[in-house]
Amino acid sequence: MNNYQVTNISVEQGLIEYISPDANAQIDFGSLFDGPSLFFSSAAAVSMQWVVAQLSCEEARHNMSGYACASANSECKTIRHTGGYVGYRCNCISGYQGNPYIESGCVDTNECLQLNICPEICNNTIGSYACNPCPYKTEYDPVNRRCVIRKHQNLLLGIAIGLSVGLGILLLCLCGVFLIRRWRRDIQKQLRKKYFQKNKGLLLEQLISSDEKQSDNKIFSLEELQKATNNFDPARIFGSGGHGMVYKGILSDQRVVAIKKPKVLAEGEISQFINEVAILSQINHRNIVRLLGCCLETEVPLLVYDFIPNGSLFKIIHDDQSNKEFSLSWHDSLRIATEAAGALCYLHSAASVSVFHRDVKSSNILLDGSYTAKVSDFGTSRLIPIDQTHVITNIQSTFGYLDPEYYYTGQLNEKSDVYSFGVVLLELLLRKEPIFTSDSGSKINLSNYFLSERRTRPTTEMVTSQLLEQASEDELNTVASLAEECLRLQGEERPTMKQVEMKLQLLINKGLRSCNGFPQSSCEIQAPPPVRLAAHHCQPLSTDGDNRANIASSSCYALEQEFMSSATLPR
């Protein structure tokens, strides 16, 4: 056998692999041994199993001197064949590896070196191993074969870092927004100061604060009015004044107000707004719309008035009657005309300064909740010193109400308002607009139409059927004659507003006296509510609101006494 080349020996499996020198040789190694044989070869490459001795394990242990399993950690294994046992071999016991045929040849196997032998931690023991879980908040890393911090901990750390960075960026953004808004507020504040100075705010403040009676008037901030109108929401637009849009607003104290905002930003408009503030700040009359204050922090000042809910006299007269709850009766017409005339009389006959309205028309006569007349819109009005009777101005009025004399001469006086009021009387009498469309489709001036028709037709043929049912012919003729006087081309031939008010009030008093002695129902339509009869007559602008007010003239005082005494007549 010296010529055989051994390629592999497996002590554990009892296997010898060798190469035979003669590939055609048929060698039966079993013939070398007695009994059953495991050895057989039929090719050049041969695998051969072997045994230590042809003894069983039991037989081998009886002869300890010849027993081959020398290692303490070895075991004997009997090799059997179909013909019986062949012999025995020695193997290291489980958990050990090495050569069992020598002392201390079987050594402990480190099972933990095998991949994935444990799902987590592997602890090697003598002859075995133990699998243990990783500590809390850790997990087993099979590549590095150790426990590491769980990945979600890293995720939480990443989230925390991300949130910190995000919050930092957010904080920087908020700081930026805050600084930008503060910068814008500073700019707006400077701009408002500029507008306040441009609009003569200090002068208006002094004007308002100098009059103790007008202590309720105030300078509103722009923020307060923006809040009151929901930032000037178009849905809050209540109407259009002569010089701007009118918004309905609710102040912080729940007062309902009307806020006039300009349509255009012209220098002339600014002057008119300032003029209106200056005038209304000195006026206190129950038939003149009350100015609550103004805002001077915009390019054009905003004016804040008492809110007048029922619109203008123009709408009451000329709008579709079927869509209104209030039907303007004849006596309501007389009462409203008298109240408006009293307001104009108050303006013209002031002791310290006279006011020419310059834009008297039915759309500037508003009606409050009880349908009491309130004269409004003083944007084109002029303050006239007491020692002057007229002033030269640019022509400003509304076509149809414009005084011809004022138009041709440019001289504004109190009789210009009288002419315009005469057109208002015609509107109440004929229920036609100042410029109306005839049946032929042409535009006709109401005052020209009335003066022309009056020469050929009685008044009863020009008025509506409704007025014929409610008014006597004498009343209609009286109002028509009064309107005709107001419309005279020469201003000096026209009555004063004091005389106009007196005639209207006497006409109302005459109607009330005619009811004396008749059942109440016969006078219900004619008699106005008692509160509407009270009137302020020609009180000076400097009045302090009590009975000590100086009366402009003795005739005005006598007229007031007559009016007051009429209130005691039976209704």
TrEMBL record:
Q: Which GO terms describe its molecular function?
A: ATP binding; calcium ion binding; protein serine/threonine kinase activity
What is the name attached to this protein's record? Protein kinase domain-containing protein
What the entry lists under PROSITE patterns is as follows:
EGF_CA (PS01187), PROTEIN_KINASE_DOM (PS50011), PROTEIN_KINASE_ST (PS00108)
Query: What Pfam families does UniProt report for this protein, alphabetically?
Result: Pkinase
**Which Gene Ontology terms of cellular component type are present?**
plasma membrane
Recorded source organism is Panicum virgatum (Blackwell switchgrass)
Tell me where in or outside the cell this protein is found.
Membrane
Asked if the Swiss-Prot or TrEMBL record annotates the protein with the keyword Magnesium, the reply is: no
Give the GO biological process terms: cell surface receptor signaling pathway
Which InterPro entries would you find in this protein's record?
EGF-like_Ca-bd_dom, EGF_Ca-bd_CS, Growth_fac_rcpt_cys_sf, Kinase-like_dom_sf, Prot_kinase_dom, Ser/Thr_kinase_AS, WAK-like
> Has UniProt tagged this entry with the keyword Transport?
no
Q: Which residues form a coiled coil?
A: none
Looking at the UniProt entry, the stretches that span the membrane are: 155-180
CDD domains per the UniProt record, alphabetical: EGF_CA (cd00054)
Any idea where the Protein kinase domain is? 232-507
The membrane topology term of the UniProt record is: Single-pass type I membrane protein
Q: Which PANTHER family match?
A: PROTEIN KINASE DOMAIN-CONTAINING PROTEIN, WALL-ASSOCIATED RECEPTOR KINASE-LIKE 21
| Record's keyword terms, sorted | ATP-binding, Disulfide bond, Kinase, Membrane, Nucleotide-binding, Serine/threonine-protein kinase, Signal, Transferase, Transmembrane, Transmembrane helix
